[in-house]
Write a structure and sequence with these properties.
This protein is of the alpha+beta class and 89 residues long. The chain has one domain: 60s Ribosomal Protein L30, Chain: A (2-Layer Sandwich). Helix content is 34%, strand content 20%. It contains two helices and three strands; from the N terminus they run αβαββ. It has a three-stranded mixed β-sheet. Helix 2 links the parallel strand 1 and strand 2.
Amino acid sequence: MSVAKTSLPLKSWVSPEVAVVGHTDTVGAEDANHRLALDRAKMVHGLLLGIGIPASAIEVTSHGEKNLLVQTADELPEPRNRRVEVSIR
């Protein structure tokens, strides 16, 4: 789902709590993947700020190559593991 489609109902919430979590696949060094996943999450954070969600409502974290959507061996590319998850509470 796109950020634009999500923004309309989210803007009507009184005080949303938004968790943004970046993920990668297992290709590359673990510390580099952690940073890459954090960069992805920060990009989504910026998009959320751009649609009017207050920074105080957004928590940004990185799981790097942990918590894979599709379990793979190390160094095996898997596009579905390269993602950002947004949870709204």
